Amino acid sequence: MAVDAIDNGTNQYDTDQPPRYVNNTNMSSRVGRLNLDWVDLDQSLERENEAFQHALTLTGIEFLEWKLHIFDLEEEMKIDPTIKYVIYRVQDERSENWRVQAVAISPDKFESRKPLPSPWRGSTDGELSEAAGIRGCTFVHMSGFIGGNQTYKGALDMAKTSLMA
């Protein structure tokens, strides 16, 4: 993974020649820019925590490892029955939405333990909200592995209804 190579100082090229261009949009660079500037007069713990939270938000969007971690947790905590859905927030510059995602049958498989209901799959917005009987639905993927809602409550209701289907 590029992030690991960058963080561990691995060269991108097998030559002593400098690259023709430099990519400063990698994850390490983006997170690094969130560090407090040394000339900033406010170096308080609060500002540092704000920067750290911003970095968590940025990296969590791209590197949320719950998909692997959840299997370890289930084993360690002896969770039975197994977890079927995970609900999380997705935020970008345009909107804030919630996702309900079905957990895969194993870390190396795409098949879900309990996909979202068939009648919802491939539907969006009003049509989906009507079919599900849940306000604010935004989409359900054709395979049923993920769906969206405008609110946490809506995503939770999607998960609860799916469990009963």
TrEMBL record:
This is Uncharacterized protein. It comes from the Eukaryota. It comes from Camellia lanceoleosa.
